[in-house]
UniProtKB/TrEMBL annotation:
This is Holliday junction branch migration complex subunit RuvA. GO terms for biological process: DNA recombination; DNA repair. The gene is ruvA. The keyword ATP-binding applies. HAMAP family: DNA_HJ_migration_RuvA (MF_00031). Has three domains with a flexible linker between the domains II and III and assumes an 'L' shape. Domain III is highly mobile and contacts RuvB. Homotetramer. Forms an RuvA(8)-RuvB(12)-Holliday junction (HJ) complex. HJ DNA is sandwiched between 2 RuvA tetramers; dsDNA enters through RuvA and exits via RuvB. An RuvB hexamer assembles on each DNA strand where it exits the tetramer. Each RuvB hexamer is contacted by two RuvA subunits (via domain III) on 2 adjacent RuvB subunits; this complex drives branch migration. In the full resolvosome a probable DNA-RuvA(4)-RuvB(12)-RuvC(2) complex forms which resolves the HJ. Residues 145-202 are annotated as: Domain III. Residues 72-91, 107-126 form the Helix-hairpin-helix DNA-binding motif class domain.
Length: 202
């Protein structure tokens, strides 16, 4: 198995990046949040796993080993393939996913594209005992953590969208539209929502 790749980023697409390793450009499929952290021309290191099929070899990349382990765990469930597992990682952050599985929260799981109530129930039944729900935050922990200024988050997400190849004006409009509805959105949530908005406008 290809456990990780490291090298300069040659290209960034909507669902993959090309990373040069030993003079070879490897196409690495990844979630928007992972792609948003990459920059063309800069070195990147991604945790990876290679999915082998009769007709293809597909490399999937992740920001860290934790996301990769969840990606692999999801595929142990009947009917969940690599594309749906990646969509799950894209929509739900690791802690949110683990908590939803442990608590049997079908409302959260059905937010994943392609996952209906029956599929969500199957995920809970098969994975509930295989994940550990994150510990609850201590009282006052949220207040103690100073949130990033809205402007800084906006600039970070706009830059990520530019890195993905979107023109600056549509990228800024998409980000501003999301911020107008959810001014306290985190960078990760903001990026996902902006990508969704840009996808609908195409």
């Amino acid at each position: 198995m290809i456990n990780s790749v490291r090298g300069p980023v040659l290209e960034i697409g909507l669902d993959h990046a090309v990373v040069e390793v030993g003079g070879v450009g490897l196409a690495v499929h990844a979630a928007p949040s992972t792609l948003g952290g990459l920059r063309r021309g800069e070195e990147a290191r991604l945790a990876t796993t290679l999915v082998v099929r009769e007709e293809s070899l597909t490399l999937f990349g992740f920001a860290d080993a934790e996301e990769r382990e969840l990606f692999l765990l999801l595929q142990t469930v009947s009917g969940i393939g690599p594309r749906l597992a990646l969509a799950t990682i894209a929509v739900l952050e690791p802690d949110t996913l683990r908590r939803a599985l442990a608590d049997g929260d079908l409302a959260v799981l059905t937010r994943i594209p392609g996952v209906g109530r029956k599929s969500a129930e199957r995920l809970v039944v098969e994975l509930r005992d295989k994940v550990t729900a994150p510990a609850a935050e201590p009282a006052g922990a949220t207040a103690a953590a100073a949130p990033s200024p809205v402007l800084a988050v906006r600039e970070q997400v706009v830059e990520a969208l530019l890195g993905l190849g979107f023109p600056q004006k549509p990228a800024e409009q998409a980000v501003d539209g999301v911020l107008a509805e959810s001014p306290d959105a985190t960078a990760s949530v903001l990026l996902r929502s902006a990508l969704s908005s840009l996808g609908r406008s195409r």
